[in-house]
Design brief:
By secondary structure, the protein is α/β, with parallel strands linked by helices. Helix content is about 45%, strand content about 15%. It has two domains: about 5-90; about 100-350, Alpha/Beta hydrolase fold, catalytic domain (Rossmann fold), CATH 3.40.50. The chain is built from twelve helices and eight strands. It has an eight-stranded mixed sheet with strand order 1-2-4-3-5-6-7-8, sandwiched between helices. The longest helix is centred in the N-terminal third of the chain and has 20 residues, at about 45-65. It is globular.
Length: about 350
């Protein structure tokens, strides 16, 4: 596609966004500075450029709906913006038989689940959404969960775990483990696969490691989309991926500190928080694992390191780095054409595990 045509499609896409209020923005002024990203990053995919350029607009819209009165309101704005991204870039959803469930949970509010019913019953997938442990919901990842269930034909259970900073570590992990125990009991004849993106990939891997450490029944497979595997937070970095590609080093550090609380430095040294730090004795016992990463993502370096370490320990683990993409790409197959190939690979591995 020629540059002028791509540029035309770019503006057509942004102008046709599904949120009516977006039309109230001065589009050219909003995008005048950010358009440089589209021009200066020819190595990024078309979807990546669209997403990076649209993000400030969505954030501004969320702030308008939720005016900032105090610093803590930034969390609410972030959550609102994340929900709106789904409304914009995940409009087409595969029709599946779905049921919303609620576990009593080990806290007052219980744990909300969403069951996507598949045709095959030999395996079941427990899906853990991303969002920096601070945002994300059953709705933000609804389209992705439908895609995975549809492509694998397995039933998929998505868990709406407690978020930080209101509920710091280990609240979210506890909710995931409680849901995992429920899945083991309700699908006792099936293999259980853990799947998650970003922070959800961290929780999936952390739970697998925790179960191995405690000599408990672990998952039969791990399907990880650009997971956070090292939560130690370098305040200064020369990483070329640390800025300019949607997920920044500064944002990662903010997420980690909110998730772990004041004792974040000490907690980040625990393998249940930073799976990269797991011992070889644990890593060699990991179930079959597929890790899909994005080329332009600050989390990819630790993913490479984790895979190499796990392989050297004897684990059955594969890494696929999707070129020209950024963190979050798999969540929006409509926008990122590269997501389709990645999700097909994920579905095939799920069937092979």
């Amino acid at each position: 596609m020629g540059f002028k045509i791509r540029l035309l499609v770019f503006f057509s896409t942004i102008f046709s966004l599904s949120i009516p209020e977006l039309t109230a923005y001065a589009m050219p002024e909003q995008f005048k500075g950010k358009l440089d990203t589209f021009i200066k990053n020819p190595n990024l995919s078309y979807g990546s450029n669209i997403f990076i350029n649209a993000l400030p607009l969505v954030g501004a819209h969320a702030k308008e709906k939720l005016p900032l009165k105090k610093q803590s309101d930034l969390v609410a704005v972030g959550r609102q913006a994340y929900e709106e991204l789904g409304n914009i870039f995940a409009q087409t959803k595969i029709a599946l038989d779905i049921e919303n469930l609620k576990l009593p949970g080990n806290h007052n509010k219980g744990i909300n689940l969403r069951l996507y019913k598949g045709n095959k019953n030999d395996k079941v997938i427990l899906y853990i959404h991303g969002g920096g442990w601070r945002q994300g919901s059953l709705d933000t990842h609804d389209a992705l969960c439908r895609e995975i269930s549809h492509r694998t034909e397995y039933s998929l259970i998505a868990v709406d775990y407690r978020l930080s900073p209101e509920n710091p570590f280990p609240a979210g992990l506890n909710d995931v483990e409680e849901t995992y125990e429920w899945v083991l009991n309700h699908y006792s004849e099936a293999k259980v696969l853990l799947c998650g993106d970003s922070a959800g990939g961290n929780l999936a891997t952390a739970l697998a490691i925790k179960r191995l450490q405690e000599h408990k029944k672990g998952p039969d497979g791990l399907l990880l989309l650009y997971p956070a595997l090292d939560l130690r937070v370098p305040e200064i970095t020369d990483d070329p991926m640390a800025d300019g590609y949607f997920l920044t080093r500064t944002r990662i550090n903010d997420y980690v500190k909110a998730y772990l609380g004041k004792n974040f430095k000490k907690l980040a040294e625990d393998a249940i928080v930073s799976p990269l730090l797991a011992t070889d004795d644990i890593l060699k016992m990991l179930p079959p694992t597929l890790l899909i990463a994005a080329e332009y993502d600050p989390l990819t370096a630790s993913s490479k390191e984790f895979v190499e370490k796990a392989k050297n320990a004897g684990a059955n683990i594969d890494l696929k780095i999707v070129e020209k993409t950024i963190h979050i790409f798999a969540q929006y197959p409509e926008l990122f054409e590269e997501a389709n190939e990645a999700l097909e690979l994920l579905a095939q591995k799920a069937k092979d595990f």
